[in-house]
Every structure is written in structure tokens, then in C-alpha cells.
Amino acid sequence: MIVAAFTIVYGVIFRLSRNILFQARLQLTVDILIVTWLVWHSGVIQSPYIALYIVIIAISSLFFVARDALVTSVACAVAFTACALFLAGHTTIIDGSLQQTIQAVGMFDIAFFVVGLLSARLAERQSRSDVRLLAATQSLANLRELHERIVESIRSGVVTTDLDGHIYTFNKAAEEITGYEENTVRGKDASIFFVDLKRRIADALQLTQDRETGPPRYETDCLTPEGLRLRLGYSISPLFSEAEETTGVVITFQDLTQVRTLEETSRRQDRLAAIGRMAASIAHEIRNPLAAMRGSIQMLRSELDTDSHQTELMEIILRESDRLNRIITDFLNYARPRSLVHSKVDVANLLHQTFALLRHSPEILQNQSIVEELPAEPLIADADEGQLKQVFWNLARNALQAMPQGGTLRAQLDRNSNNRLRISFSDTGRGMTPDQVEHLFEPFSSTTGGTGLGLSIVYQIIRDHDGTINVRSREGQGTTITIELPAFTSNEISDTTQASQTATK
User: Fold this and answer.
1) How far apart are CA 301 and CA 312, in angstroms?
2) Is 147 left (phi over 0), alpha (psi -120 to 50) or beta?
3) In order of start, what are the domains of the chain with their CATH numbers?
4) pTM
């Protein structure tokens, strides 16, 4: 009951004051008083509870500095001596004289002082150890924080994994590049970013054992959470423990998407420059004779019977000449695109108009459907309306041609977190192989049987609008083409409105 009562009292004191040292001093003081009371009632010199003073002195060294341990030993000696002398004045404590009693008390006091000195020494050593431990802990924490800041400050993505490819850490640059957060990928297989990673890890470890210079560089494609494709360049290095054992690997990577896009754009521009130099001669050397041939065939056809076999052959010639003329027109549009005429374009309304025309076109089949997922509010872009409509028309026609057995073309429009308009065209058609996707926007590369220039023109128009275009496709599972264009913000609209009002005044 007494122990329970003191426990409740100490608990109340702890809630009133969070000072641990104050509560420790209070409890030790109460302990000295309780032990003195026990000694008083158990014969003082003959009491078996005298050893509890030594326990109190030893415990004080665990909580206090050396001086407090000495003070505690003095307090125990004073309490015991006072108790013994007070009792000696009223009764006989042991068989013998008062002098023997004083000698016994003195011996106990000396024992208390010796234990106090030893406890003080112990407290001093413990204090020094605590200081050194605290300094070492702080130094280790500072070093760890420095290493974390260094890793987080690296502008390359850094991923550490175990030997099976499971992710340990994922730095801030890796999050920014891939769009994934560390807490969502920790523990997962890093092959979601780096294809055929286990074989790459084995190669890297083998190169380390062979002591060959420098880790090899690899490139791979990676999809962001939004479904956009990234081109990553990465290298793999072993991660060693303190015992020089290989415990995992460190993967450093960079986003090469923009670099590869610029390289591809440069190659396309080189081809475009060569094609442009040929455009004028092609127009004269092919188009003019073609027009003359078509006119001559029309004259000959007018002199023949409508149902004759020769008339049917001439109709074939006229159709093929028209097709050849369209090829030349597409070629010239690609080689010498007209300059942009910028205006404020409601992209949602432009998509709706394009699909309204497409629904009444003979190119759409009965088992094909078009689904529009467009926002209610207008989304404005600063673009060439005619060229943007050409982009939407070409992409929609290609999607329908990729679904000869029927399917659904789905168009979506929204604004992403970077204040850019995202337009996606998704079909449920036959899809494409990775090689077809790689060469999709190259001239004369067709997956639907056309001239192969439509998507090249689309790519050029989007690039001229400072936009991006990405393709995600799997053979037999359809294709999704995503376009991003700079959005015309409300601030820009208000600035334009104010400028026009000022000009009117």
C-alpha cells in the first residue's frame, strides 16, 4: 500500500513538472527518510536495513553528477548518525559502552563516504562517457544528414537496391524524373524502371570482379504514372558493406528524353532541309506532267461510251493520278510547311467540331464509335487553328484506320499540373510494335497504309507550337497518342483584354 501510494504521488508530481532531476532528488530524499525510519525501528546499529543507504548512494550516481553523489552519501551518514546518537541518549544500543557505539557509527559513516567517493567517481566517468557518446551521436547524425543532403542535392536520379533489385532508397531527383514518390516504390522491384535489371546487375558485378574500368552505360524506356514515356540513361555500381561484401547496387540515371528528342528533331530537320531543296523541282517535274496527263485522259474519256471497258480503265488512271497528286501535296506540306498564324483557340470546341465532321464522313464504319471526354469550361491555347485542326483530323483518321474490325476512339482533354493542355487519342485497334512506335513520325513510315507523311506533319506542327507528343502502344491492345500544348492562362487573357481596351481608348 505504501509503495502504491508513493507511486501515485510521484506520478502526480511528474505530470505537474517534467523536470526529471527534481523528481529524482525528491524520491532519493524520501528514500533516505524511509530507510532512517526502518533503521530506527530495527535496532539502529543491529538493523539489517543499513545496507539500503549504500543502495541509495549507488543509485544517485546513475542520475546525478559526482558532487550530488557525495552530497547523497553525506546525507545518508548524517541521517544514520543522528538516529544512532539520539537513540544512544535514551537507551543502550549494544552491549558495551557509548564509546563502542560511536565507533560502530563512525565505521558505518566511513563506509558511506567511501561508497560516496566511488559513486562520485562512477558518476564522473559516466558523465564523461555520456558527453563523448553524445558528441559521437551528434557527429554521426551530422555526417548522416550531410550524406543525405549530398544524395538529395545530386541532380541525377540515385536508386539503391539489394542484389535482387528491390529498392532501398529513391532520392529527390529520381522522384522528379520519374514522377513516382519514394514511399510508393520502396521495396518494389526496380525493373519497373529499368528493363532486364537482374542481368544488368550480374554484368556490373562481374565487371567489378574483373576490375575493368568504369561501369557500362545502358538506356531504357520508362513510363511515368501519367503514362508518358521517358528515355533513361543509367549505370550500375556495386554497394559494399564495411566488411567489403557486396550487399546491393547503386543505380544512377538521367532523363535523356529531351536529349534524344533534340537529336531526333535535328535528324528530321536535316532530312527536311534536303527534302525542301528537292521540293521545287518535284513540283515542276511531276505535278505539271501529271496535270497534262489527267487533262488528256479526261478528253479521251469524253469521246468514249460510258459503259465501255476503256472508260473503266481511264477511271482507274484518273483515280490513281488523284492519289499521286495527294501524295505530292502531302510531301510539299511536309517539306515546306506554312508559317503559323497564332490566335486564341478553344481546344475543346475545336475537338468537338473535328469529331462532328468525322461522324458524317464516309471513313467511319458502323461498328466504330467516337467518345468525347471534354471539359465544360473552355481551355484556351495560343495556336494556329487550321494547323491544330489538321493535327486532330489526322490523328482521328489514323485511329479509325487502325480499327478495321471496329472499336472505340476516345478523346480526352484536361489541364495538367504544369499548366499545359493534355489531349489524348486512344483507340482499341491493332496497336503497334516497339519498332513501329520508334519510327512512327518519320516520313513515309505508315502503319495504316497511307502515304506515311500525315504523322510527320503532325509532329512538325506540334513542335512548332512548343508542344510535345508521346505514343504508348502495344500490339493487339490499341494505341494512345498524347499531346501537350502550352495553355493560355487567365492572366494572359486579362492582359490581352486590358491592352485591347487601352488601344481602343
Assistant:
1) 9
2) alpha
3) 2-147 (no CATH), 155-255 (3.30.450.20), 261-335 (1.10.287), 343-492 (3.30.565.10)
4) 0.45
